[in-house]
Structure formats: C-alpha cells, structure tokens
Amino acid sequence: MVGGLDRGALAAATARRAPNEPTTRAAGRYLMCVQVRERATQIAVLEGRQLIQHWVSRPSDDATEIDGNIYLGRVQNVLPGMEAAFVDIGTPKNAVLYRGDVRYDLEDVEEGQSPKDARIEQLLRPGQQIVCQVTKNPIGAKGARLTQEVSLPGRFCVLVPGAGTSGISKRLPDDERKRLRKLLDQLRPQGYGVIVRTAAEGATAEELAADVTNLVQTWEAIEELAARAPVPALLYREPNLAVRIIREELNRDYRAVVIDDRALYAEVAAYVQAVNPELAGRVEYYDREAEPLPLFERYYVHEQLHRALDRKVWLPSGGSLIIERTEALTVIDVNTGKNVGSSNLEETVFRNNLEAAEEIARQLRLRDIGGIIVIDFIDMEIRQNRDAVIAAFRAALARDKTRTQAFEISELGLVEMTRKRVSEALVDAFSTTCPTCGGRGILLDEELLDGA
After folding, report:
1. Cα distance between residue 252 and residue 128, in whole Å
2. Cα separation of 222 and 72, whole Å?
3. So what's the pLDDT on residue 342?
4. CA-based Rg of the chain, rounded to a whole angstrom?
5. Cα distance between residue 356 and residue 333, in whole Å
6. Terminal-to-terminal C-alpha distance of the chain
7. CB 41: neighbour CB atoms within 10 A?
8. Residue 45 bridge partners (DSSP)
9. Greatest Cα-to-Cα distance within the chain, rounded to the nearest angstrom
10. Which H/E stretch holds residue 346?
11. Contact (Cβ atoms closer than 8 angstroms) between residue 21 and residue 244
12. What was the pLDDT predicted at 4?
C-alpha cells in the first residue's frame, strides 16, 4: 500500500492507458527522458533542448550504486591513526566510517572528557554491530563511505531518527520558510529530526504530515528488521534509479517525464500518482514501436552525449575548453580559439571567460565531475573583470544541487574549486580502461627500453 493506494492495482491501471493517448504537455523548462535497454537504463534531463544531466544504471550496479542504502554492519577493525573504522556491510570491499560520522552514547565517553574529544577506539570496537547508511558509493579501489547519522528522504521531508534539530531548505523564499516553520513545529514527531526539502514549496499541512508519517513507519520497520537480521544485512534499499531521481528532481518546472519502457512507466506513474498526484499527468509513455525514432534520438540526447565525452568543448563565440582528468584532480583550460573579439584584448578575454564560466558549470554537472578541480581562465588585467567572472561562475554553480566550493581567481588566472564526488563520472559510465596502455594514453617503446 502506498499512501492508501494499492501499488500493483494502480500500476496495472496506469499501464492500460493507450500509449499514444493525446496529452496536453504542461509548461516547464525541463524535460526528463528515460531510455530502458537490456544492458542499462539511461536518464537524461534537458533544459529546453540542451542536455544538462545524465545518469546510467546497470543491473550490475546493485553492488556499487548503494548510496542511501541502510545496512546492519559489523566493525572489522578500528584504525586510530586514520580516525576511521572499516565495516563489513556485505559488499565486496569493506566500507569506511570516519570519526566525524560516528554516533555514540554519552556513557561511551570517559568521565571528565568532552564528547568532541572522544577517540574512535573509545566509541567503536571490532565485532560491534552498527546500523549505518552509505553516503558515497564505492569508487575504484575505495570502499563505500558510511555514516551512523541515518536519514530517510521522502517527497517533501527528510527524517533524521534520533536527532533533536530540524531545518528548512535555504533555497525556499523567506515567506515560504516562515510558513513551513510553523507547520514543522506542529508535525515533528518526538525523537526525530525533520528537514523540509525544496520540493515542499506550496505543500499543505496534510501532505507534509502524510510524508512524515510514512517515513516514521519506514524507520520503525527498519529497526524491527535490524533486531532480528543476521549480520551483515541490507535493511533498506533505495528505489531504482528512475524512481529515485524522479523523487529528487520532479517538480512543477518539469513539463514531462517520457519513458520508453511500459513496465517502468507503470511503476513511475504509480509512484508519482501516490506521492504527487498533481504531476501524474506529466509522466508519459513513449511507444518505441509506434514512434519513428528512438527516444534519445527524438530529443537529440545521443549527439549531445557524444560531445559530452569529448575533451574539447566549443563556446558560442568560438572559444573552447579543454577538460583533462588526472588521478588527483581535473584540469580545465580556457582558450579564446576562434574568438578574436571586436574592440580590445581585455574585453575579448573578459567576454570569453564569462562564456566559459557558464559552460564549465554546465559541464561539471553534466559530466558529474567531482573532487578537486582547477580552472585556468585567460588572464585579465582589470580586477573588476576578474570579480565579475567569479561571480558569474558561482551563480552558475548555484543551480547545481551537488555541493561545490569555488575560491577567488588567483593572480595566475586560476580558480581552485571542489565538487562533492558521489558516483562515477559520465566518462567512466561509458568507458573501460585501455588494456594496452593502462589508461595512460601512450605506448612505450619497449624495444628502446630493452636496449636491444
């Protein structure tokens, strides 16, 4: 049962809708396309006709795409020197839990010692069973990252069991934050923290209460399972990628969600009908047999994906970006290229850098580039121009839901920034390391090295 509705019955009824039933598409700046194939499901988000985000999900990702899952794990070993513990959660690689993500009781702290000063070996011991949540997928040789501060996301709220504080999204207008604050004070259950999401804008008290009630029931079921499950055990799995992204993204700014698989369409339509019925009409089925073109070709996603995998990106005025990845960081070089300007060099460089700032923010989001990033803007002599470029860059980054931090432009024209790495980048989703060169991009002259 979902929100008082039988999910199976609702899905079956939704699937019986005629595939080509005419619909009046709602107004909105975004369009989501979901393409399902045997090897992978791909999800693309377009702003107008421009691709701005893309995700890939494969059947094999059950072992690697585990962000948000909750586990009953067993502490394998505690490393005081790293202030971390390795935890067996049933995945191929042990996950890591850092000291700052450990949840503990005050009795675990030695008398006279501040809780903040408690060392990880005082709080955790090998063999201990803990309930933990994945905050970062395993990437490469690194295992998943964990936290004991568990949170459950819903449509309008995030429930934080055991927390005493609550919050409201800073993306909401001040008047809406005040309205939601009053509602939050009334509906927050004892012993839980509640964070109100941006999607709650305009939500009624009844909608918020129903969301919180559903999340509390989910947490109680997780606690019950944790009490009797063998260790390690998966206690809660995030829904499939399409449903998860729709939960995070879908709002009134989307004109449609178009899905080319009937079974997934029925599941998504049932979910949206249950949690956000006013948007249910924006979920559409794309009949591959009736339509002349595949979904991604119909909306020009394929050609934009090919461009997003190239190291060179052209800017509208003729300039370009060169994007290079290394083990430690990603480097982006800004060039004027064919942009020769019309007045003077400083103005040409300034306009080129402004274009580059907007495009770099889009490329970071589209390619899902994370970690440390260094951007080499073209040198500008005038301080006000440098300030204007970094301001434009930060404004463009603000549209990215992934946490970013960008520092001022240095005297060398460099911007150092970070973007939280949650999952594999776009290029990793579509590629494998070259077995011949091992990813270096060069072939050594073995004959010369051997001295033959």
Report:
1. 46
2. 10
3. 65
4. 25
5. 10
6. 74
7. 21
8. 32, 53
9. 82
10. helix 345-367
11. no
12. 36
CA quadruple 88, 90, 94, 99: dihedral sign: negative
d(CA 179, CA 176): 5
Report d(CA 401, CA 251) in Å as an integer: 14
How far apart are the C-alpha atoms of 382 and 398, rounded to whole Å?
25
Q: With contact defined as beta carbons under 8 Å apart, do 313 and 307 qualify?
A: yes
Residues of the chain scoring pLDDT < 70: 1-25, 60-63, 105-116, 340-342, 451-452
At 11-29, the pLDDT tens digits run 444 444 434 443 456 777 8
Q: CA–CA separation, 44 vs 269, rounded Å?
A: 18
**Contact call for residues 270 and 11 (beta carbons, < 8 A):** yes
In contact, 200 and 171? CB cutoff 8 Å: no
Token reading at 90: 């049933």
SS (H, E, C) 155-179: CCEEEEECCCCCEECCCCCHHHHHH
The pLDDT of residue 389: 95
d(CA 90, CA 443) in angstroms, rounded, equals: 39
User: In the prediction, which pLDDT does 45 show?
Assistant: 95
pLDDT at residue 8 in the model:
46
| Measured distance CA(5)–CA(15) in Å, rounded | 16
pLDDT value of position 16: 40
Beta bridge pairs of residue 325:
330
Q: Are residues 318 and 63 in contact, defined by beta-carbon separation less than 8 angstroms?
A: no
Burial class (CB in 10 A: 0-12, 13-18, 19+), 242: buried
Rounded Cα distance, 194 and 175, in Å: 19
Omega of the bond leading into 232 within 30 degrees of 0 (cis)? yes
Burial 92-130 (b: 16+ CB within 10 A, else e): eebbbbebebbeeeeeebeeeeeeeebebebbbeeeeeb
- How would you class 450 by CB atoms within 10 Å of its CB: exposed for 0-12, middle for 13-18, buried for 19 or more? exposed
Are 331 and 324 contacting, i.e. CB atoms less than 8 angstroms apart?
A: yes
Cα angle 156, 160, 165 (rounded to 5 degrees) comes to 95
